[in-house]
Amino acid sequence: MSDYRISHIALDEDTILWRNADVEQERRVAIFDLIDENTFKPLRAVSAGHGGPYRLQLAVRDGRLSLEIRDEAGLELETLILGLARFRRPIRDYFAICDSYYQAIRKATAAEIETIDMARRGIHNNAAEMLLERLEGKVETDFATARRLFTLICVLHIKG
Question: To the nearest whole percent, how much of the chain has pLDDT over 70?
Answer without folding.
Answer: 94
